[in-house]
């Protein structure tokens, strides 16, 4: 019998080596990759997400857990059948034009990835048209925009406007974030949602795409 | 009581040996790890290459030889005077002389009437300037909030205009681009009555956050910095990594990285215009590892800001750093202790130009009118500590003790009358030292309520005319002033 609780605890501790060996023994015992993914990894990551939101875990610890998880997923991937991993959604993410700050945005991207989203991280200082292009190209369901500077916040609106102009606005949900950004601002510029930290961003992304 | 420009240096978290160790580590960071850059700095790179730096364009790296860095650092003036227009608030920045004032780029403010948090406006910026102008212990006015009610393209001239109109104290702010800097320079020269007068006594200075930590040059700001330096307008080379996210989690590692970033910035400035006045602008901060936000009120921020002055003093460049941040959302007890700790530590280290020291709340997100009144008091008390205890015959008072004699009292002694107003700190009235009875009779006001009354009173005073009407007219015609 695979010890999923042990796997969950190990994922929360972020012990990559131990998690890998636990997953390997489970596979050797004949447990399916799909079951390991769902009952061990995803279940553990759900708890990590909760702990992050309640601020019981430091972000570097969260990242360590996420990294351990993706190491195991690399092992599981060849063993997973088509359809075993159903992406929670395709997300294009970036920091708006004129803004070079990308730590928070990268954190959200990483967390989205470990929550099962397919993430296309464009980087920082990205022009509105570049987002539109990528959304078209990847047939994305969601756009996440970040800004840290008050002076670049208007670029969020410009990006959403570009999206509307291209006719893609209805296809994607738009989520925004960054230190100076607020719910009011999100409402003002016609975004679908605002999250004040990475933990709530994941929750909101799931809710918006449900 | 004169409390501006007193000498600190009583608190030295780093030993001399530790300072040297960190300095050497910084030089090795610049030589081995180097700086990175993006496009648009070709002239700057050529200048550095010519001076002896190694430029690896394929990997976007600049490697600074230690000799080059130290040679350029030695060209930076040991003393920078930031002038006021009222003549009473010139800031003589050198050695361990301490000055504290406002700072930040907050986007929210607690409304003075309702007490609620709302976006900050251009009018707020002007009113805060007027308030600070009347609070004696706040030594300079660094633009504390962003006028969120005007278009970003109008920020530069309007911010400087609002500040210069509001106060005669030294004004510092950042600008968005080189053109913005030129406009601000022109506007300020109009106020000064000519460019020569402005250069002779610069009453404005520019914050240039040239480095994106870790170790990356920001193109736009580096260009602004070089343009200001060419014009001999003082610049503060701001870099503000957060331990744990944009610098190592450890204090020593953060200090070493910041010192390296500063040495690189100083090298660029002094190569651009040797001898130009600059402020070493290392601002050690901490990341909140639970949220990745900026942790303002941690006691270690005070310790590291003290240490960074030691490092700037080691290379003999006056410094710009930070204290008085708090993570509290309102002027409350937490705000009080966090501000008091960090300001006192930064001041006792001898930091030359400590910004953020008044008004800030919610890390760097918000300011509050009341908080300026409270922080004026905290700064005053911090500076009082620097003055120390005078021990000389007059202050020892042996004759007085003998003449009063055993069993007497000192209340009527001329010596008491002589020193009662200058031996102890007298604040702006925010402190409550009344009897309970009297306090209750006057409405049982708490600190924030008392501060609100003082702020309202000061803002109710007649506006001082810091920009003469004819000059004002010219400025308004030339630039789209929105105040």
Model description:
The complex is a heterodimer of chains A (210) and B (483). By secondary structure, chain A is α/β, with parallel strands linked by helices. In chain A, 55% of the residues lie in helices and 13% in strands. In chain A, strand 4, helix 8 and strand 5 form a beta-alpha-beta unit. Chain A is elongated. The mean pLDDT of chain A is 90. Chain B has a five-stranded parallel sheet with strand order 11-12-13-16-18. The radius of gyration of chain B is 23 Å and the shape is globular. At the A-B interface, helix 5 of A face loops of B.
List keywords for this structure.
heterodimer; A: 210 residues; alpha/beta; 5-stranded parallel β-sheet; 9 helices; 55% helix; elongated; B: 483 residues; 4-stranded mixed β-sheet; 44% helix; 15% strand; globular
- The secondary structure category of chain B is alpha/beta
Mean residue pLDDT of chain A: 90
The biggest beta sheet of chain A is recorded as:
5 strands, parallel
Side by side, the strands of the main sheet of chain A go 2-1-3-4-5
Helix content of chain B: 40-55%
Judging from the principal axes of the Cα atoms, what is the shape of chain B? Answer: globular
Q: What form of chain A results from the Cα inertia axes?
A: elongated
Along the chain, the helix and strand elements of chain A come as HHHHEHEHEHEHEH
Give me the count of strands of chain A: 5
In short:
With 210 residues, chain A is of the alpha/beta class. Chain A is 55% helix and 13% strand.
Write the layout of secondary structure elements.
The complex is a heterodimer of chains A (210) and B (483).
Chain A: H1 4-13, H2 16-28, H3 33-53, H4 59-76, E1 90-96, H5 103-114, E2 118-126, H6 128-138, E3 142-146, H7 154-165, E4 173-177, H8 183-189, E5 193-194, H9 198-209
Parallel strand pairs in A: 1-2, 1-3, 3-4, 4-5
Chain B: E1 6-7, H1 16-33, E2 35-36, H2 42-51, E3 54-56, E4 61-63, H3 66-73, E5 80-82, E6 91-93, E7 97-98, E8 100-102, E9 108-110, E10 117-119, H4 122-133, E11 141-142, H5 155-166, E12 171-173, H6 178-192, H7 195-200, E13 204-207, E14 211-212, E15 216-217, H8 219-230, E16 235-239, E17 242-243, H9 251-272, E18 278-282, E19 285-287, E20 294-295, H10 299-314, E21 320-322, H11 333-349, E22 353-358, E23 360-361, E24 366-368, H12 369-387, H13 393-396, H14 398-404, H15 414-419, H16 436-441, H17 447-459, H18 469-478
Parallel strand pairs in B: 8-22, 9-24, 11-12, 12-13, 13-16, 16-18, 17-19, 21-22
Antiparallel strand pairs in B: 1-7, 2-4, 3-4, 5-6, 9-10, 14-15, 19-20, 23-24
Helix pairs in contact in B: 1-9, 3-9, 4-5, 5-6, 8-9, 9-10, 10-11, 11-12, 12-17
